[in-house]
Amino acid sequence: MISVEMNPNIIRNIRKVEPYVPGEQPQNRVVKLNTNENPYPPAPGVERVLAEMDTDRFRLYPDPSAAKLVSALAEHHHVGEDQVFVGVGSDDVLAMCFLTFFNSEKPVLFPDITYSFYKVWAELYRIPYECPKLDGDFRIVKEDYRRESGGVIFPNPNAPTAIYEELDFVEDILAHHPDEVVIVDEAYIDFAGRSALELLGRYNNLIVVRTFSKARSMAGMRIGYAVSNPSLIRYLNDVKYSFNSYTMSQVSIACGAEAVRDQAYFQKTIQKIVETREWAKEELQKLGFEFPDSRANFIFARHPRYDAGELFEALKKQDIYVRHWDSERIRQYLRITIGTREEMEQLFAALRTYFKNRT
Ligand code: PMP
């Protein structure tokens, strides 16, 4: 077989991108605190829906409009069905947003330390971008977002810092970009505070993006959505249908719609995670870690005495997975997802042993 590398003409015509590298998904049982999943199962009704599914229907394509899920979400958020757009995880929704709304010669703005997929999409779709630096405390500097732009996107809480900005901050950015779309990626909002959804009535340039992967314990189902005004949602649908109208599987549509209905279970799960997070903050502090105050389901922490890369490797040897990046400014940090209390106890025990053996 002749390798394609032998033919520079073919290579020249291939689009090259630096891909997004997701956290590891080990298939054996480990203490998995590396990709911000939820340690608790999805709402119990999801299991019932799966058991009752009519597999004969799998012969047929799913409903391209995912009406059942859209309608459950519209009811949940008290908005019209024409204000909701669904996709295969919020990554899919965000990618569609980049394609649809950032079609300008001017640069899209997003923080230099943030969800690293934004840069990948910008490059993939040839969208110019600028990344204002976070300040020394990892906060987004709102004044940096007062320049001309082709749009703005940021997560709230930000990732991987876990810092939540209050709504007046979001409003400031919306007000300074009346002619561009501002996307607030609320992947972690359920663990944080007030949502930018409250601002939808006042700003026609706002898109709020949400996911089922975190607070709803359904990362494996791949469900995400955007909420905005009907006109922006219509543009998003036009782009989506131009790609692939049957994006969501019948299974995701049915299970997603069921999960939205069980608010009580949802709230209970969030509460457990927030309680564990607050306790984990105290434990990490006792161990000497430093971290910005987390309002998400993870903590972005460094230890002044121990190298984060070495800690990461040592934990992994004991089947405890956290996240570590090799990039310059955050090399000294670990991002630790909040698991169950037992999982966190295992992590802290491993850290204590590691520190003891080092002194
Ligand atoms: N936005 C942010 C800020 C995230 O951290 C993630 C998860 N890695 C996503 C979006 C994508 O989540 P999903 O595609 O699972 O909905």
Automatic annotation (TrEMBL):
The keyword Phosphoprotein does not apply. InterPro entries: Aminotrans_II_pyridoxalP_BS, Aminotransferase_I/II_large, HisP_aminotrans, HistidinolP_aminotransfase, PyrdxlP-dep_Trfase, PyrdxlP-dep_Trfase_major, PyrdxlP-dep_Trfase_small. Keywords: Amino-acid biosynthesis, Aminotransferase, Histidine biosynthesis, Pyridoxal phosphate, Transferase. Pfam families: Aminotran_1_2. Pathway: Amino-acid biosynthesis; L-histidine biosynthesis; L-histidine from 5-phospho-alpha-D-ribose 1-diphosphate: step 7/9. GO terms for biological process: L-histidine biosynthetic process. The modification N6-(pyridoxal phosphate)lysine is found at K214. Residues 30-351 form the Aminotransferase class I/classII large domain. NCBIfam families: hisC (TIGR01141). This is Histidinol-phosphate aminotransferase. The lineage of its organism: Bacteria, Bacillati, Bacillota, Clostridia, Lachnospirales.
